[in-house]
Amino acid sequence: MMHLRDTVSARLAAQDQIIERQMLALQKQAEAIADLHNRIAMLEAMVPQVAAAQAVLAAKDRHSPGRPPHGFVAATIAQVAEMTGISPKAIKGTARDRATCEARWRVMQALHKAGASQPFIGRVLNKDHTTVTYGLKRAQEMWGVG
To answer: pTM of the predicted model, to two decimals?
Structure first.
């Protein structure tokens, strides 16, 4: 009888140890789950900030009406400068000699054909939009392309 009691006690003790290990494992899992819940809450709190940042980036990348694609303006000015021998600085400057004005009108014409608005072209070239209107008219008269 004593031997049976010792065997049962030993088995109960072994089962207690197994249960204790399982409880520790469950406690660790519960802590890990709580940590994950905290991380999820932090990430959810960041969603509006991420969405706002994405909106800002999308707005920068988006081709908006009245503006040609990014990089097109500088490339157009550089191309006209190379073609005419007038520097980009002069094209955007205040010089009023014939060659510079014609180079400027070519830039205006190219940007307008690319969909740029007259106020946008004016801002790019440091000119009033009415000057752009005149330049587009002169380009049409000289080269026949609107």
So the answer is: 0.56
